[in-house]
Amino acid sequence: MSHSAHIPSHRKPRRSASKLALRAGVAGGVLGTIAVAGAAGPASADPVTETIEMPTLGSLGTGTGLASAVAASAEASQQEALDQNLRSLENAAVLNASKEATKAKAEADRKAAAERAEKARLKAEQERRAAEEAAERASRSRARTQLATVATTASDDGGSSSSGGSSSDGGSGASTGEERSQAPSGSAAAIVAFARAQVGDSYVTGGTGPNSWDCSGLVQAAYRQAGIDLPRISYEQSSMGTSVSLGNLQPGDILYWGSRSGSYHVAIYVGGGKYVGAQNSSTGVVERSLDWDPPSGAVRIL
Fold first, then answer.
1. pLDDT level of residue 272 (50, 70, 90 thresholds)
2. Which pairs count as long-range contacts for 95-101, CB under 8 Å and 24+ apart, including other chains?
3. What is the predicted pLDDT for the residue at 73?
4. Which pLDDT value is given to residue 120?
5. What are the pLDDT digits (tens) for 155-202?
6. How far, in Å, CA of 87 to CA of 180, rounded?
7. DSSP string of 98-117?
8. 284-289: strand order across its sheet
9. What is the pLDDT of residue 180?
């Protein structure tokens, strides 16, 4: 066993490099302060009152924290800018939505006003048409009544008129007899009265009334007043009854244009060398002379 085993070592413990560096720094700072004071003047000069602050241990370790603080501040500034931008966008969106809502409301109000005006116009138009149709029906009813009265009077007074005419000159008697033979009576009077009451109505292809007709639709409706059902088509109507010459016509006879089995137009002879028919879309239902558009032939059903 060594004799020096129990003798304590006189060597000082080895200090760490960081502590040595720290002490060197502090010593350097003190020496620097003394050197500055010596250079300022002799010993009798005023003592140096300004010292240089040396970095301390705490300030030496704040580099990382400062960088973090700067980064945090930059992030906060960026977030604030984003928040402000978001608020600006939100305000713009609210303002735009308000403008759009105002515009939509104005458009809705305009459309509602236009719809109300259109409804009012349509209602007024319907009322006007209803009044015109009522007046027209009343006029037709009066015309039918007058025609029926005239036909009945002419039929009842036929004998007396004939006897009275015999005392006159022969020409006058013949003329009176001819006019009397043209006056419709019975079923013919009803057919003629109905046809004349429709004069002025419009022409519509396929029309069967009450205010628009085509040629065969008018003839069919007129004969229905006498309780007679006719076919709907013109060539079928002209194929019924018996043929009569245009020089021997009687009120109520059906006139046709074309051939009897292939007629393309029909009308009703109303006496006095005239007929009533639904001609076309330009003229509508008219009463015309046979000379205006001479028919091809005629048939008698009554």
1. very high
2. none
3. 86
4. 87
5. 454 444 333 333 333 333 333 333 444 566 789 999 999 999 999 999
6. 101
7. HHHHHHHHHHHHHHHHHHHH
8. 242-244, 297-300, 254-259, 262-271, 274-280, 284-289
9. 40
pLDDT of the residue at 124: 83
* Domain ranges within the chain, ordered by starting residue: 102-183, 185-300
For 291-298, what is the mean pLDDT?
94
For the stretch 52-81, pLDDT in tens is 555 554 444 556 778 888 888 888 888 989
Single out the residue of 288, 290, 283 nearest to residue 204, CA to CA. Answer: 283
- The residue among 149, 148, 184 whose CA lies nearest residue 300 is 184
Which of 26, 35, 24, 36 is CA-nearest to residue 56? 26
- pLDDT average, residue stretch 117-133: 79
Residue 267 near residue 224, CB atoms below 8 Å: no
- Report which of 277, 253, 287 is spatially closest to residue 184, judged by C-alpha positions: 253
Max CA separation in the chain (angstroms): 199
- Alpha-carbon span 22 to 247, nearest angstrom: 150
Distance CA 211, CA 189 (A): 21
185-300: which CATH number, 3.30.420.10, 3.40.50.880, 3.40.50.1370, 3.90.1720.10? 3.90.1720.10
Q: Is the pLDDT of residue 3 over 90?
A: no
For residue 219, give the amino acid letter.
V
- Distance between CA 9 and CA 201 in Å, rounded? 144
How many residues make up the chain in this entry?
302
Q: Is the distance from CB of 219 to CB of 246 less than 8 angstroms?
A: no
Q: Which residue carries 């259109």 as its tokens?
A: 118
Residue 277 pairs in a beta bridge with: 286
Q: Is 285 left (phi over 0), alpha (psi -120 to 50) or beta?
A: beta
Name the one residue in this structure whose structure tokens are 């502090």: 26
User: Which token pair is 63?
Assistant: 């580099």
Best CA proximity match to 147, nearest among 276, 293, 291: 276
User: pTM value?
Assistant: 0.44
